[in-house]
Design goal:
Length: 513
């Protein structure tokens, strides 16, 4: 018997697909997630989250649940760019936040959230084909009990860099492939006597190596112990012969690579404790971006839309925010109140952000390459990031906060993620993040004006008006989208024409009822 038509089918049960499923579930949708793996993967991949996505998790009430310490997210005091430490101590406003969480744990947490919102997650079900129509998509699925079809209003490809959805839809994936570097990564165990107090290593014959990236004459050596008793090391070698992809990486191959890079032996033993443990080889690097993120009723998120180097840890920051950006817009359309063109803003807003990530990850890779010219460039770059304005520029680049959405409003806050304000409402002391836990638009009134409630009456079914007081208010009123971005703001509410707010409400949340 054919299945009942679905609102949204998501191909891919990784972090981005599950995040999108949760966003849709929060808005009352019941998407179907198809994932070819029989269960969530335990394979070690990303080890943490960097950038504005940490604030996004806080906005959804997930920050502490995912392992964040008590209180609001606090900015990182420093980070790396091209393997070079950059201090943010001079910044008045630091946008770089971090959260240590392994990708397997993140997936399981997002799965738990999605199931709690009644999302239909189908492990062991693989999308094998699609037929796109003007107003729906028919997908074919290979399931444990045989093939079947689903008709859906929208299909979202969250199926990785080799996305079948992207290929079947005919969306080009231009970019570059770098084949001159081989990276080897593994969890290992190392002698305790080699560890330094600052989290690095002291290797006889090679000297002191810092936590994180170490560019040396013959390549790059990376060391990090993100989980107690579970150190991870990696080497990157340039210009050699490509490795045979059919031969799995071994610890002996890694030992030999460390010797070539450091010019010294490092006593490497198998990792202790339960696995799975990382042991993989990466030959070259793809940097590619989908020509468009939407083709009619089909959308792309995460690696299906963009692939790039992991330098600076931007992958989850980019992909999870893709999901949050698309989720509320799809839900608005399916709930019948999306204004014309809202779905098109997914591409126009997120594509430039992806371009910036590709640019800076390529730049960081270039700064890690061998050669006297690169050494000189790193010296110059080190001098430049000693200047406050340049530090701020790098911080916003890494955080993903350097791209401002076009919201049609000129206020400095519009198009940016809402500031983390402490406010006083009828519920007591709160933060702005708490107002957005349910994924609904919010008009934050910081002057307690009865006039605003009158203006927004026609949108009361989809926009929450919240009167509040704030000692350091950056505006009199803020209109905030479900993904946490400001669409309209004013510094002088008493002189603001009601038509300006009505125009913003209509542009983003449809006409009044």
């Amino acid at each position: 018997m054919p299945e009942k038509p679905a609102d949204v089918v998501i191909s891919g049960g990784g972090p981005n697909g599950l995040m999108l499923a949760g966003e849709l579930g929060l808005a009352g949708m019941r998407p179907i997630v198809l994932e070819k793996l029989p269960q969530p993967s335990d394979e070690p991949r990303a080890n943490g989250i960097v950038g504005q996505v940490v604030r996004l998790l806080d906005i959804r009430g997930l920050y502490h649940e995912f392992g964040g310490p008590p209180g609001p997210p606090r900015p990182a005091p420093a980070f790396y760019f091209g393997g070079m430490p950059v201090s943010f101590a001079t910044l008045d406003t630091n946008p770089v936040h971090t959260l240590l969480i392994s990708q397997p744990k993140l997936v399981r947490q997002l799965e738990k959230r999605a199931r709690g919102l009644s999302v239909d997650i189908r492990w062991g079900h693989e999308l094998t084909g699609l037929t796109q129509h003007d107003d729906h998509v028919v997908v074919t699925v290979a399931g444990p009990e045989g093939p079947y079809e689903i008709t859906t209003n929208f299909l979202v490809g969250a199926d990785g860099g080799k996305s079948l959805v992207r290929k079947e839809t005919g969306i080009a994936f231009p970019g570059t492939t770098t084949t001159r570097a081989v990276t080897r990564i593994a969890h290992v165990s190392l002698p305790e006597k080699l560890r330094t107090e600052d989290g690095g290593l002291d290797v006889p014959g090679a000297g002191r190596l810092q936590f994180g990236f170490n560019r040396v004459e013959r390549g790059v050596f990376t060391y990090a112990e993100l989980e107690p008793g579970r150190p991870m090391i990696a080497t990157t070698e340039y210009g050699g012969e490509p490795a045979d992809e059919d031969i799995p990486l071994t610890l002996q191959e890694l030992r030999d690579s460390v010797r070539r890079v450091l010019g010294a032996d490092l006593p490497i033993d198998p990792p202790r404790g339960p696995g799975p443990h990382a042991l993989r080889r990466l030959d070259g690097q793809n940097t590619r971006q989908a020509e468009r993120y939407r083709e009619g009723t089909v959308f792309l998120v995460g690696d299906a839309a963009h692939v790039h180097s992991a330098m600076g840890g931007p992958g989850l920051n980019l992909g999870l925010q893709d999901a949050a950006n698309l989720g509320w817009k799809l839900a608005a359309h399916l709930n019948g109140w999306a204004p014309p063109g809202l779905l098109d803003t997914y591409h126009t807003e997120r594509h430039p952000v992806g371009q910036r990530v590709m640019m800076h990850t390529l730049a960081q890779g270039a700064l890690m390459a061998p050669g006297a010219e690169v050494t000189a460039l790193r010296q110059l770059f080190g001098e430049l990031v000693g200047l406050p304005d340049n530090v701020a520029h790098i911080a916003h680049l890494l955080a993903g906060s350097d791209v401002r959405y076009d919201t049609g409003d000129t206020h400095p806050l519009s198009g940016r993620m809402v500031p983390d304000l402490t406010i006083h409402t009828s519920h007591g002391r709160q933060r702005t993040a708490e107002l957005l836990h349910q994924g609904r638009p919010v008009l934050l009134d910081l002057t307690d004006s009865a006039n605003l409630t009158e203006i927004t009456h026609g949108w009361a079914d989809r926009v929450d008006t919240v009167p509040a007081a704030c000692s350091d208010a950056p505006a009199d009123a803020l209109l905030i989208r479900p993904d946490g971005y400001v669409t309209w703001a004013t510094n002088s509410l008493q002189h603001t024409e009601p038509a300006q707010l009505e125009q913003a409400l209509t542009r983003w949340f449809g006409p009044a009822h």
